[in-house]
Amino acid sequence: MFALAHLSDPHLAGWSVDRPSALANKRVTGWLSWRLNRHRIHLPQVLDLMLADMAEQPIDHIAVTGDLVNISLPQEFEGAARWLRNLGTADMVTVIPGNHDAYVRVRGDEGIARWRDYMTDMAWERADGAPPADPFPFVRKIGPLALIGLSSAVPTPPFFASGTLGSSQLSVLRDILAQLGAEGVFRVVLIHHPPLYGKGHRRKALTDAKEFSEVVRAAGAELVLHGHMHMASLGHIDKIPVIGVPSASALRWHHKDAAAYNIYRIGQANGAWRLGVEVRGLTNSEDRFVPSGSYELTIPALRH
Ligand SMILES: [Fe+2]
Ligand SMILES: [Fe+2]
Question: Domain-by-domain residue ranges, the chain?
Fold first, then answer.
């Protein structure tokens, strides 16, 4: 059994605005929202408790599905790089960006490029042998798994938190899924925005969710993991499970869930993939993480 941990949306605290001019753009709305509310919801001590709990579980790899930072200040990316190094080495941890990691346009070397080591191909070469033109999608083969990292993170107008993959990323994704499908690995697609999100939430939605679903349906995948909603969820694209986790640093707030992470235990039995999902969540007393749910799914192997 391979054990993959999944956490999302840590929204790391511990940053401040030292230059008012840094707020002369969309950042000002994010800064206000942090000052008014979010600094009381996303707590470093909750995240520390999660990491302490995770360290006690037998885990082979960790996937982080975006929103590491809040308003995309260069110092936040630096802090997140330190946090990642503390979480694990680049061969132990895979990261994709979320909308808060592209809150405004940031020069490449001051933004998510600081996390580059955690977002690159590993043990995998494209069928045509060509080096990738874009960082996304990237593919990391680990044990029986292939993690396919996407970026739906694009700068948006104030009050929008939507995401877009774009047609070129989707077309590369289709080729990658087909190639990996032929190799018979367990394909895990990582995307920040939930690809099932309804039309009623246009401000937060993945604009090309329909196109993404079509690609995944046609080329195949075994599991899709996302964040963004700060809520636990399980949905499907055909028979492919689509799973979301709450924010890794959050206290329960209105309809949003308290912090939790999932451990997926993946193996094969009787010609099918078996996926055991263990949910580990923050207790009501907010002092530790405990098992708070589990379910098991069977996923047809060698769909293509
Ligand atoms: Fe988030
Ligand atoms: Fe998000």
Answer: 2-300
Beta strands across the sheet bearing 289-300: 93-96, 61-65, 2-7, 260-269, 272-282, 289-300
For 92-125, the DSSP string reads TEEEE--GGGGSS---GGGTGGGGGGGGS-BS--
Give just the sign of the alpha carbon dihedral 86, 83, 39, 290. negative
* Among the listed residues 198, 195, 246, 201, the one whose alpha carbon sits nearest the alpha carbon of residue 221: 195
How far, in Å, CA of 303 to CA of 193, rounded? 25
Domain 2-300: what homologous superfamily?
Answer: Metallo-dependent phosphatases (3.60.21.10)
Q: How far is the CA of 66 from the centre of ligand 1 (A)?
A: 7
pTM: 0.96
Mean pLDDT of 120-133: 82
289-300 vs 240-244, strand pairing mode: unpaired
Give 180 Cα–ligand 1 centroid separation in angstroms. 29
